Amino acid sequence: MNFIHNLEVAMNGLKANKMRSFLTMLGIIIGVAAVIIMISLGQGASKRIAGQIASMGSNLLIVFPGAGQGPVRGASGSVNTLTLEDAEAIAGLSMVAHVAPELPTNATLSYASQTWTARVVGTTPEMQVIKDWPVSAGSFFTGDDIRSAAMVAVLGKTVVDNLYLPGTNPVGSTIRINKLPFTVVGVLAPKGASLIGEDQDNVVYIPVSTAQKRLMGVNYVRLINVQAETPESMDLVQSSIENLLRERHHVAGTSSDDFNVRNLTSVLETAESTTAVMTLLLASVAAVSLLVGGIGTMNIMLVSVTERTREIGLRMAVGATESNIRNQFLVEALVLCLIGGVAGILVGIAGSKIISKAFGWPTFVTVYSVLLSAGFSAVVGVFFGYYPAKKAAGLDPIEALRFER
After folding, report:
1. Fewer beta carbons below 10 Å: N end or C end of the chain?
2. How far is it, in rounded angstroms, from Cα 62 to Cα 228?
3. Cα–Cα distance between 322 and 306 in angstroms, integer?
4. pLDDT per residue over 62-84, tens digit each?
């Protein structure tokens, strides 16, 4: 008996017991669908994190004041060791593509009768390049605006939505930031939420010199963004920045740095590693339901062997070998799981799309997850179908013919 004939027999067996076959496959369908959905959720989360980190800038190093792992702020512990001169010195290092200092503060904005609170950031035109953030109207401010400490501003979309009537072009209008008048020269395209869920569009960019001299009255910057020319040069650039700032800040010997440099590529690698572990964990949990479906398949196959004992005896009596009987039931179990696996893949893909639309969670179905699920369902079919098939092949023909239910 060849494989094609075994396949025909298996299909006829499944058709003869449609409801039982469907209920048997249901466990496989749920298991495969669960694996697909869990992996798609993990992949979607990974892609969202990568996109959010990329929105902060590629090949990006961020220099913070203080020796900790982040910016140190507040009156009780302010460490304001970074200056515009530091940023200009860093820009002169080799393998550095762009440098943009930041001096942020929260401020009240007003236009006509509308008021709104947003994050106002003093920076340079390089910020737009580093963040790859196009303007939807007008333009970003220029180097001349920095040198003259011009009272100009570039607005994020959320600010525009909350200060202006729909359809209004803000370019050329005058808004007040903490009661100081600023001319709007540009509007940024929508950017979305940051990695920590902050609305990146609720921002106003102004020249850093304006922020220092006219808005905040300080002579430092809060952080410095540094974009390396290539991913491979980031370690070299980071080392160069550390050496340069230690020299400029007169940090000698084994004394602790009064700054710290963070590499966003390493943050991305850590985030991807974490999501990969979470995806594997979720897929493992989902795979348990697939194993349960496999056990259900084995039970049904054992029942089928019992029900068809006389049929097995007759076939053995007319010449069927043990391998013929074993292959017949093995193919039947395999077909059962493969059909369930294909149905589960379709249900999983549909479920991923439904979850994405219903909850707004990003999902991404990969070819890898589909092949993994299909392969796993086939393995489950062979593994859990082998014992019933072996039991059927091991029946004594005479005892099988005598069998009565």
Report:
1. C
2. 11
3. 16
4. 999 986 554 444 333 456 789 99
